């Protein structure tokens, strides 16, 4: 689900087809501080998995911000970067319940773990360097 200036849009992608490539979800207008992309498994089939390797937000005329996630063995590692050097901060919301603790770079502020994860990354002065946070189920 994508929350944008015009409302909310649900986009379903089955990456069993074209899974090794970027899948465009659309073009949306975003207002500062009021948008997000949510990945969830509301409609996952019983034998399926929900995995988002990355979400790429591309401002018009600039390089993309990137969010890269890796999930294994009870941990979810998230790396965030703004190679555009245009944003002072990036807020990430993940519909990933069950995580109880985290370890984060000092530029990351975790707002909540339940019912979904929400955190902000201070990207000011980061020069495009990724900032990471690792969430743990235990």
Automatic annotation (TrEMBL):
InterPro entries given in the database record: CBD-like_Golvesin-Xly (IPR033803), Lyase_8-like_C (IPR011071), Lyase_8_C (IPR004103)
Taxonomy, superkingdom: Bacteria
Ranges where the Golvesin/Xly CBD-like domain occurs: 2-58
GO-annotated biological processes: carbohydrate metabolic process
Ranges of residues in domain Polysaccharide lyase family 8 C-terminal: 63-91
Pfam families listed in its UniProt record: Golvesin_C (PF25275), Lyase_8_C (PF02884)
GO molecular function, one term: lyase activity
Any single Gene Ontology cellular-component annotation: extracellular region
Name of the protein: Uncharacterized protein
Species name: Microlunatus parietis
Species lineage: Bacteria, Bacillati, Actinomycetota, Actinomycetes, Propionibacteriales
């Amino acid at each position: 689900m994508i929350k944008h200036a015009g409302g909310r849009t649900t986009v379903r992608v089955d990456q069993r087809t074209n899974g090794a490539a970027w899948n465009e979800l659309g073009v949306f207008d975003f207002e500062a501080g009021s948008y997000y992309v949510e990945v969830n498994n509301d409609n996952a089939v019983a034998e399926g998995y929900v995995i988002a390797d990355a979400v790429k937000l591309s401002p018009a005329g600039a390089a993309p911000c990137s969010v890269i996630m890796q999930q294994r063995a009870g941990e979810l590692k998230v790396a965030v970067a703004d190679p555009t050097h245009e944003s002072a901060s990036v807020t990430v919301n993940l519909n990933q319940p069950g995580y109880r603790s985290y370890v984060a770079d000092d530029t990351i502020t975790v707002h909540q773990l339940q019912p979904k994860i929400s955190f902000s990354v201070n990207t000011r002065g980061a020069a495009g360097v990724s900032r990471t946070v690792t969430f743990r189920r235990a």
